[in-house]
Amino acid sequence: MSFKSSPPTTLYKILTVSEHEELQLKNLAFEPYWRGTSLDHTDGFIHLSNAKQAPIVADRFYQDQPEIVLLKIPYTLLQDSVKFELPCPPGASPEERLKLKEAESKEVENGESELFPHLYGELDLSAESLEWEIVNRTETGFKESMSRLKW
Fold first, then answer.
1. For residues 15 and 69, is the Cβ–Cβ distance under 8 A?
2. Burial code of 96-121, b = ≥16 C-beta within 10 A, e = fewer?
3. How far is CA 97 from CA 46, 82, 94, 117, in A?
4. Predicted confidence band of residue 72 (pLDDT cuts 50, 70, 90)
């Protein structure tokens, strides 16, 4: 993937509090590699966001949550396993995915797309460079709270 500007320094995984608690229940010392949430399993990759996308994704898909957990991941940990692709609707069929791939090629060529990072592989949760941040939803959503974070 070539970038018009420099690649992101950090990528983000948004989790619900219950998804985060489920992770904490696992003994990460014995099982540090994580393949994502149930949605990630269904779609075949771990959904990630960049700093610009994360507040939008949080407000769009987690509006029913009073708080979320934001996992900050250095891009250098993932760069060999991340593909930047068009967003894929949850549970999209293989035919829908193929159509998205075709549209993606055209949009990338024209510079019109907003590509999302998708991790194809496991995430090593034992990496010391990972950071966890709890973000509270305000009356207007997560954007306000997230705007105060150090990206």
1. yes
2. ebeebeeebeeebeeeebebbbbbee
3. 16, 17, 5, 16
4. very high
For 18-40, the pLDDT digits (tens) are: 999 888 877 666 778 889 999 99
Q: What is the largest CA-CA distance in the chain?
A: 46
Whole-angstrom distance, CA of residue 65 vs CA of residue 28: 25
Q: Cα separation of 17 and 57, whole Å?
A: 16
Nearest to 118 by CA among 150, 72, 86, 140: 86
The beta strands (E) that lie in the chain are given as 10-16, 33-34, 46-47, 67-74, 82-85, 116-119, 123-124, 131-136
Share of the chain above pLDDT 70, in %: 80
Cβ contacts of 79 within 8 Å, gap of 6 or more: 7
Q: For the chain, list the domains and their CATH numbers.
A: 10-139 (3.20.170.20)
Rounded to an integer, the average pLDDT of 103-117 is: 62
Amino acid at 129: S
Q: How far apart are CA 87 and CA 95, in angstroms?
A: 15
